[in-house]
Amino acid sequence: MPSSIRAQEFPSQRLQNKCSRAAGRSEMDTWACTALSDVNIADATGFDQCPSPLGTDYRDQRLRHAELERAVQELREKVDEEVHKRQVVDFDRELAIDALREKTEEVRQRDETIDAQNALLSLAWADAQDLASSHQSTQDALQLLKEYIEGILASTPDPELNANKKRRLSEPVLLCKVKDV
Hints:
Keywords: Coiled coil. By secondary structure, the protein is an all-alpha fold.
């Protein structure tokens, strides 16, 4: 009974003795346990068992800090993934834009070639009309026109376009239409 009366009379002294005897105690830990003199600790053998708010907060802070570090790392990874995705999308977009520019340039060059051929064909048609009026036979003029146009087509760099025009020249319907005009 005397020891329990003594424990009741000096709770802070008893608490301090138990907390300071624990392995690895710092002065702060001892102070924290001493400050809690109204708390009854039956078997405080170490800091982890001491109900000190300081110790609990420290452990909670470490856990929260570790959770925050994991969350920050996950966010960094997600940001890196998004940045990579955007870089890939931007790169693909640039490739598509470059391809469209090249295609546009090809179309422009093809249009220029067609315009040049149309201009030459218009000149050939004008020359053919002059030849037809000077020659007695329209067939001779058409043959000369066909030879003239074939010469123009031979100088054209686009073989597909040449094949289509040569096919049209060999059709008798086209020759009749040319004759009627």
